[in-house]
Amino acid sequence: MGVRLVKLAYLYALDIPLKPNEFRLLGWMSMTALDDDTTPRYFDSREASALAIGRRVVDDGYGDEADQRERAAAFEAVRVALAGLVAIGAVDRISMGRNGRRSEYAIRLDAIASRSTSEFAKRAPNPGRTWFQTQVEPGPKPRTDLAPNPDATCPSGIPRNNEEQEPGTTSSHSAISLAPVDNSAVEIHG
Questions:
Q1: N or C: which end of the chain has fewer CB within 10 A?
Q2: pLDDT per position as a tens digit, 125-154
Q3: CB-based burial of residue 72 (10 Å sphere; 0-12 exposed, 13-18 middle, 19+ buried)?
Q4: Over 80: is that where the pLDDT of 41 sits?
Q5: Under 8 Å CB-to-CB from 124, ≥6 apart: which residues?
Q6: How many other CB atoms are there within 10 angstroms of residue 115's CB atom?
């Protein structure tokens, strides 16, 4: 299926700011579409799209009123994510879903075309910079989670200056040492 498309979706998301549900849905759409199509198409059900963004829904007509409200909320979240993907240019709607027919989307993943959309202009805070370069710089407050001197304890309460251990032994607060171990003496019983 869409292994190549999933890789392209991840690369696309590096350059284009996608919301979390949009990214999840785009990954799902890319995974289920065929790589070999000239224009990869997605046409899975709304229930599958809801599952892609982390919403498990009951079948229509089953469950209580709360289940039906959750179903409606899940489909609304899918609608919002799809509208965002269409607006940013990641996918194009080929056909609308109707009774008994699923919506169909063409997966584009053209970062250059997406950068020229008005939605990209809204999401990219500083023109001329990519969206991930606008992260907030760390403040002037120094780190307080590290011990100020070598004799103090770490945040977990473990003394910082541990005694040296013999290779292959463990301590109460560490895993096996990284020293070489001779595995030739191990017997396998079968």
A1: C
A2: 665 555 555 555 556 665 555 555 656 555
A3: exposed
A4: yes
A5: 17, 130, 131, 134
A6: 15
Name residue, tokens 């498990």.
56
> CA 88 to CA 156: how far, in whole Å?
45
Q: Which two tokens stand for residue 50?
A: 């809801």
How far is the C-alpha of 25 from the C-alpha of 54, rounded, in Å? Answer: 9
User: 């020229």: which residue's tokens?
Assistant: 116
* Residues contacting 33, CB < 8 A, separation 6+: 1, 2, 5, 40, 41, 42, 107
Q: Do 41 and 29 meet the contact criterion of CB atoms below 8 Å apart? A: no
pLDDT score, position 54: 92
HSE (CB half, 13 Å, CA atoms) of 87?
16
Residues in the chain: 190
Q: Specify the pLDDT at position 125.
A: 66
CA distances for 20 relative to 14, 52, 173, angstroms:
13, 11, 37
